[in-house]
Amino acid sequence: MKQISRVLLVIALILLTACSPKSFPPEVPTEEPAATVEESIPTEAPVATEPPVTEVPATEAPTRPLSGLSADPQRVEFQAEDGVKLVGYYYPSKYANAPAVILMHWAGGDLCDWSAISPWLQNRPDENPQEIERCINSSGAALKNILPPMNKDASFAVFAFDFRDYGESDKGAGWDLAKDALASFETVAGLEGVDKSRITAMGASIGADGAPDGCLLFNQKVGSGCLGALSLSPGNYLGMLYSTVVTGLDPNPVWCLAGELDKEAATTCADASGDHYRSQVYPTGGHGMMLLTDQLDPPALILIQEFLELVFGEPVKG
User: Fold this and answer.
1) Distance, first Cα to last Cα, the chain
2) What are the domain boundaries of the chain?
3) pLDDT digits (tens, 9 = 90+) for 130-143
4) CATH topology of domain 74-312
5) Which of 27, 111, 143, 300 is 20 to 30 A from 82, alpha carbon to alpha carbon?
6) Contact 234, 265 (CB under 8 A)
7) Looking at residues 20-34, what average pLDDT do you find?
8) Do 266 and 239 form a contact (C-beta atoms < 8 A)?
9) In 64-193, at which residue ranges do the beta strands (DSSP E only) sit?
10) 7: which DSSP letter?
11) Average pLDDT over residues 286-305
């Protein structure tokens, strides 16, 4: 009996357990997934497209500013320091601030001796500069046929003048031509279109002395500005010793040209010396302007071009 009771108790316990609510293991809180920072997928930046390459048209090298002055020679009246009135003609360069060349005539002539040389050095043939009326039939005009070609970019400001007692300048004023040479430099330094720091001179006979004499006197007076001189048959004609003047102008170049048979000029050339001095004595050849011929070797006109290339540092020969 007791055995049956135990069995019944066990059954009752089993039934009671089956009818009670089911128990589950406690829920383990699960970690919420960490907030994920949304990776920003880099969007491709717009690719900068280079503008299409356009060909730049080739341009010419910058040119020197033009003077804006007419090619026609301008009559200029000026005075020497002793009051003598002088006359010259100015041939403007096509360029602004151009180097200048002063031309001085020989005895018995006047500025018309340079009537072909002046426009040749000015080098503005396309503009056909007018001729000085009184010079049209001068002996200087004949030189036009033997002038060597000029570099197309060369163009100098040119000034030719009459010494006292010649041409249009005052007459009966004595023989102090060195004053006239100095006055020509001072006048040229003040002309429109001229670079007053780059002036040179050349001359024949009395002008062959006047060119270096005036150059030295001008530099002594203002400090600088004349870069040298070229002489065709000098002879110490203006009272200043040529060799001393050459020494005084150093290191500026001075070139002396003469014919061997022209004893006075040849001796004058031979007496001068210096590191920047050049003497060209021809076995033949006459005096002064007579050296401007194509019969000498090397031609004096070519030497003029080479001299200007030296003093101004720019191409002259064509």
Assistant:
1) 154
2) 74-312
3) 999 999 999 999 99
4) Rossmann fold (3.40.50)
5) 111
6) yes
7) 38
8) no
9) 74-79, 85-91, 98-104, 157-162
10) H
11) 97
Cis bond before residue 251 (omega within 30° of 0)? yes
Distance CA 100, CA 267 (A): 29
- pLDDT of 177-189, one tens digit each? 999 999 999 999 9
Distance CA(184)–CA(76), nearest Å, equals 10
List, in order, residues 6 or more apart from 80 with CB less than 8 Å away: 86, 164, 176, 179, 180, 182, 183
Are 252 and 228 in contact, with CB atoms under 8 Å apart?
Answer: yes
The whole-angstrom separation of Cα 154 and Cα 141 is 21
262-266, long-range: CB < 8 A, 24+ apart: 262/233, 262/286, 262/287, 264/235, 265/208, 265/233, 265/234, 265/235
CB 259 within 8 A of CB 286: yes
Confidence of residue 8 (pLDDT cuts 50, 70, 90): very low
- Which amino acid makes up residue 15? L
